[in-house]
Write a structure and sequence with these properties.
There is one protein chain. With 295 residues, the chain is α/β, with parallel strands linked by helices. The chain contains twelve helices and nine strands. Strands 1-2-5-6 form a four-stranded parallel sheet. The longest helix has 19 residues. The two termini are 40 Å apart.
């Protein structure tokens, strides 16, 4: 939080992140974005007037309803009872009541996302990211229908039609929630971070560039950090080296994308368990190999 500019930077991964749960605890049917809302509420109490919300790494699929509850929204079922909606109970929302406080209207919210998925449908939040959040394949259709129901409630109760805005499906629907509940906007996370960190200037002055990614596949080049770095490398004719945990793409395909060479942790081990437990020492080896190659 920058007190001078009254600007706060918040990360969903820290407040509602999948890395905070063990594999056995991950279940997008019951996880909630309440913690993200509590973090936003805290920032507002500290005087924040402009809030950037990083949407990556969530464990949730609740359409941001937990976040909304923490900020004063009420969700009412068909029996007139208020409740905290989760992925499995979005279909039970009958009415949405906005908060009485005007605190949200006195601040500007910018969601940062490199995901372009809509809220629901075959390419929506549930079908695309639900399985990695512990939602069984047998429950995907029901949860996705709940997302569509939430979209209908937004239109009827709040006058917001945001489900098909690019990025609406980010972080289990938190992208759409930032638009519907916070009157916010969605911006490219990659572009914002590259500008903030003055990466373009650094690339101009560098001899070679090393960038990273956890798992590399075709989606890595669809607006994520790699694509932004590669664009600048190509603009300034710089070699770009990629370090990753694992890759699903052959080196020839990566070269077509503009990657000069690849170093993957998985290539140094016979099994994935060693890749995880010995990552640090493997990255040290990769660093030495990179140094010799670049020099």
């Amino acid at each position: 939080f920058d007190t001078d500019s009254k600007t706060a930077w918040l990360g969903v991964a820290e407040a509602s992140g999948i890395q905070e749960l063990s594999p056995a605890e991950r279940d997008g049917r019951i996880t909630t974005s309440l913690g993200t809302g509590q973090l936003i509420a805290h920032a507002l109490k500290q005087g924040a007037k402009k809030l950037f919300i990083g949407l990556g790494g969530s464990a949730t699929n609740d359409g941001g309803c937990g976040m909304a509850v923490a900020l004063g929204y009420q969700f009412i079922d068909a029996h007139g009872h208020t409740f905290l909606p989760t992925g499995a109970t979005l279909k039970d929302i009958n009415k949405i009541m906005p908060p009485v406080s005007t605190a949200l209207k006195n601040a500007t919210f910018i969601a940062l996302s490199d995901v372009l998925n809509p809220l629901y449908g075959p390419n929506g939040a549930t079908y695309t990211f639900g399985p990695q959040k512990g939602i069984p394949s047998t429950a995907l259709a029901d949860i996705d229908a709940g997302m569509q129901h939430l979209s209908d409630r937004w239109q009827q109760c709040l006058g917001k039609e945001v489900a098909h805005t690019p990025g609406a499906g980010a972080a289990g629907g938190l992208g759409a929630a930032c638009l519907a509940f916070l009157d916010g906007t969605i911006q490219s996370g990659t572009r914002s971070i590259l500008q903030l960190a003055q990466v373009e200037k650094a690339i101009q002055e560098a001899d070679a560039i090393v960038t990273g990614e956890g798992r590399v596949d075709e989606s890595s080049f669809q607006g994520k950090l790699i694509s932004g770095v590669l664009e600048l490398c190509q603009q300034y004719n710089k070699r770009c080296y990629l370090v990753c945990g694992q890759t699903q793409l052959p080196r020839e395909r990566l070269r077509q994308k503009g990657i000069f060479d690849l170093y993957a942790v998985q290539d140094y081990h016979k099994n994935s368990a060693d890749s995880i437990t010995k990552t640090v020492e493997t990255l040290e080896k990769i660093g030495i190999a990179l140094g010799h190659t670049i020099i």
